[in-house]
Design a protein that fits this description.
Strand 5 and strand 6 form a beta hairpin. It contains 16 helices and seven strands. It has four domains: 8-55, no CATH class; 59-109, no CATH class; 114-255, no CATH class; 278-482, no CATH class. The chain is mainly α. It has a five-stranded parallel β-sheet, with helices on both faces. A two-stranded antiparallel sheet has the order 5-6. The longest helix has 35 residues, at 241-275. Helices cover 56% and strands 6% of the residues. The chain has helices spanning 8-18, 36-42, 47-58, 75-90, 134-140, 159-171, 206-223, 241-275, 280-299, 311-320, 323-330, 341-372, 381-415, 418-426, 435-449, 451-481; strands at residues 121-122, 145-152, 181-186, 230-234, 335-336, 339-340, 498-500.
Length: 501
């Protein structure tokens, strides 16, 4: 029989809906209580019969309700009702609701004290294995989202959070992405006072204990090259929730300020260019700067070769994930809720694109910084600063284009390679070991046999380099000569922010 275990949250809810809750964990030395689901399974002679019985116990025909409202007027009672009702629905214990894919809660009060902000709080599904999932990545990449990565006190920042941050740092070129992330270490009563300094001295109070823990978190982030991410410690049972709210508001304000500063920089560049329009010295400086940029663009028009193919990141992911997760994805032609082969292909191409463009970006940045230090080109400072600000966006466009093209090139051929997926699926559960290695071998053979797809991807990436980076740079050089300011408008800094939790 092939073994497959759903996510912990899903299994808990399904068991509750079927009236087969997992027995409480037995204390040391006590008799382990029987598992009602396992006992029920023993009464059936086949898996199909047990599956039919389990499905019947879910009573999905009765679980048709989709909305529920509190009908009282007392705010305290309303909060208690919300707590119990939300818990019941989320855990499959409300007989009127099926297992929800998403729960939307509307409350008649502001989530944060700042009335200028319209904020939605989104709690993602917990991490069960890898945190590199499409749903979490989509929230992380949302430019209007502040993402809180919560870790248990003892493991903060836990390995899944570190793996996710490392993945993002390697595969995305958005320079502000990590500024929108914060680590929250969740404490329980007594955790803070149990902390000790390197000298062995115990924390004198809770605040000192928090400082010690956050220092350890920051050290761990620095070791993986991610220093500077904001951190916060919080004990829900004892701390003032207003402090956590303030921390979140500060993170949102920082995101809004970055957008506002970028808009102000654009305005300042425009003002300077207008002020210098009639100056012959400014025109000469602009001509020199533009010529430097144009020559650089010509030299870098050809993109250097890829270090490794995009599919290597996918193969590496297969070797790190649980075999059950890999097997579940092979049954679905490469797409499972917490492992999407095409996401990893796109991320592999994006990581290579970031590496391939990095040397060019560094060279262009050096030229601009050199011109900024040149006193004879001072009148072109605003223009140079605007070009400098746009480099990150051009690189980001190129990296995202590479991600898109990898998915587009491989999607249909790979998803329709049913023989490949059947072969990858068939060896799971045979007790022979090396299942993931076998999947990697079959996938690698398929990719190498279909070398024309890799070549097509390379052509598209090269074209994306020309259109996303080189062409905008050459346009900037030409616009500099005519006193125009380049760059797309920055997002509206006054628009509402959203919190992703």
């Amino acid at each position: 029989m092939v073994e497959f275990k759903p996510a912990e949250e899903v299994e808990r809810a399904l068991r509750n809906m079927a009236g087969l809750p997992r027995p409480a964990r037995a204390r040391k030395g006590a008799t382990v209580a029987p598992d009602p689901a396992a006992d029920l399974a023993k009464t059936f002679g086949s898996l199909d019969a047990f599956t039919a019985e389990f499905a019947a116990r879910l009573s999905l025909w009765r679980r048709s309700r989709r909305t529920i409202e509190f009908e009282g007027i007392d705010a305290k009672d309303g909060r208690q009702w919300l707590r119990s009702t939300f818990t019941g629905i989320n855990n499959g214990r409300h007989e009127d609701f099926s297992l929800p894919g998403r729960i939307t809660v509307i409350v008649p009060f502001a989530l944060v004290p700042d009335a200028r902000l319209s904020i939605a709080v989104i709690d993602t599904r917990g991490v069960d294995g890898s945190a590199v999932r499409p749903d979490i990545l989509s929230h992380l990449k949302d430019p209007r989202a502040v993402t809180l990565l919560c870790s248990k006190w003892g493991s903060a920042p836990d390995p899944s959070a570190q793996s996710l941050l490392t993945h993002i740092n390697e595969t995305d070129a958005d320079p502000a992405l990590l500024d929108r992330v914060a680590i929250v270490a969740l404490a329980r009563l007594g955790d803070a006072l149990s902390m000790r300094h390197d000298s062995g001295d115990a924390a004198g109070d809770v605040i000192e204990g928090y400082d010690i823990k956050l220092g350890q978190v920051e050290d761990a982030l620095q070791k993986i090259g991610l220093a500077g991410i904001e951190t916060f410690a919080f004990d829900a049972s004892a701390d003032d929730p207003g402090k956590l709210t303030t921390f979140v508001i500060e993170r949102i304000a920082a995101v809004r300020k970055a957008q506002a500063d970028a808009a102000q920089a654009t305005i300042a560049a425009i003002d300077q260019m207008i002020g210098n329009r009639a100056q012959a010295e400014a025109m000469a400086a602009l001509a020199t700067v533009s010529s430097n940029l144009d020559r650089f663009a010509d030299r870098q028009a050809g993109l250097r070769g890829a270090r490794r193919p995009a599919y290597e990141r996918l193969l590496g992911a297969v070797m790190t994930l649980h075999a059950r997760t890999v097997w579940a994805a092979t049954r679905r032609a490469g797409r499972f809720w917490n492992f999407d082969a095409f996401q990893h292909l796109g991320d592999g191409a994006a990581a290579e694109a970031k590496i391939r463009s990095g040397e060019v970006v560094a060279g262009l940045t050096a030229i601009i910084e050199s011109d900024l230090d040149n006193g004879e080109l001072a009148s072109a400072k605003g223009f140079l600063m605007q070009v400098h600000a746009n480099i990150a966006q051009w690189e980001s466009d190129f990296v995202n284009a590479a991600r898109h093209h990898a998915t587009a090139v491989y999607l249909q051929p790979l998803s329709r390679a049913q023989g490949l997926w059947d072969a990858c699926e068939s060896e799971y559960g045979l007790g022979m070991g090396g299942y993931r290695e076998g999947v990697v071998g079959r996938l690698r053979t398929w990719f190498e046999d279909n070398v024309e797809l890799r070549e097509e991807l390379e052509r598209r990436v090269a074209r994306a380099w020309e259109t996303s980076f080189i062409a905008p740079l050459k346009r900037a050089a030409g616009q500099g000569e005519s006193h125009q300011v380049i760059g797309d408008p920055e997002p509206d800094s006054a628009a509402p922010s959203r919190l992703e939790a």
